[in-house]
Amino acid sequence: MKRLIISVSLVIGLAACANRESPNAPIASSTASPTTLTTNPNTTTTTLVPPDGKRSDERSLTLFDTIANDNLQPKSIVHSGTGLFFAQNMMYRHNISVFDRQS
């Protein structure tokens, strides 16, 4: 049963990726009118500087803390942008751990 599902999935995937047009199909001609591109020459670039004034090449990483647990063996760690860190191991252990800045 598992082989049947894999085979059907493979056939559907290949069919979706196949070129649906006939190689002898006529090429469609475009009758659209030419377009005009207008650009705004008054662009402004802003560079954000951290409060301490250091650039990224003037900084170095330092070890803050070590989290040790035999069950925690992540293959990837992702930051959400809102203060959460997701440590995931979906290859061997199938676990996801979520940390914030305090944990």
Characterize the overall form: flat
Helix content: 10-25%
Task: Please tell me how large the radius of gyration is.
Answer: 27 Å
What characterizes the major β-sheet? 3 strands, antiparallel
Derived structural class? alpha+beta
Strands, total number:
3
Distance separating the two termini:
44 Å
Low-confidence stretches: none
What do the pLDDT scores average to? 74
The spatial strand order of the largest sheet comes to 1-2-3
Order of helices and strands: HEEE
Give me the oligomer status: single chain
Number of helices: 1
Strand content: 5-15%
Describe this structure in words.
- The protein is an alpha+beta fold.
- The protein has one helix at 2-17, and strands at residues 76-79, 85-89, 95-99.
- Strand 2 and strand 3 (95-99) form a beta hairpin.
- The two termini are 44 Å apart.
- The protein is 16% helix and 14% strand.
- A three-stranded antiparallel beta sheet has the order 1-2-3, with no helix packed on it.
- It has a domain at 74-103.
- It is built from one helix and three strands, in the order αβββ.
